[in-house]
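Obj.: predict assembly geometry.
Materials: sequence records (below).
Method: joint structure prediction, all chains together.
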Amino acid sequence: EAQVTQNPRYLITVTGKKLTVTCSQNMNHEYMSWYRQDPGLGLRQIYYSMNVEVTDKGDVPEGYKVSRKEKRNFPLILESPSPNQTSLYFCASGGPRGYEQYFGPGTRLTVT
Amino acid sequence: GQNIDQPTEMTATEGAIVQINCTYQTSGFNGLFWYQQHAGEAPTFLSYNVLDGLEEKGRFSSFLSRSKGYSYLLLKELQMKDSASYLCAVRDQRGGSYIPTFGRGTSLIVHP
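Observations (raw structure tokens):
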């Protein structure tokens, strides 16, 4: 089954404790991206990757890191999480036609 | 940057037709998307417009006017399961990359 998977789905952590949210897709897509979704603000792009070893900042990259060492994986790293990073995070990968995106199920992160 | 406006909430009756509008301002327009997002779930792709006109896909149609910076999503024969948030997103060309920016979404409530 074609899909985007994220882990963990839910995470409660404390300020300053490094964490990684994994994202994996099995559709051989070149394009992958990370978004956060907050009430009243909609989806905002954090980072995106056009291909292996090619990453770039989206609209809200501060406090986040990413890497793209393999085509299928695009982990999101929070080196020192803060409460303002409490949010719902979505990973997405780009479709074969080059425009639609397929989203993972989401990771709900709470930083206390 | 971009500015995307869509109504916050709309209500409609089962079996009826509803039109969700989206206006945008962008410097490097490269396509407009509509996504559907049910509460607690990931967004799913509905439609893509890059040229002016109407794209029809079953009960859903999407219209684009680039000169007016305007799009709408038309939902016909509404069903209860159409109750969801509808996200308008505009893809902007920045340098050599295509960056999507999402609106805040329109929450559609379908009642019997």
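Conclusions so far: The mean pLDDT of chain B is 93.
To do: check interface contacts against the pulldown list.
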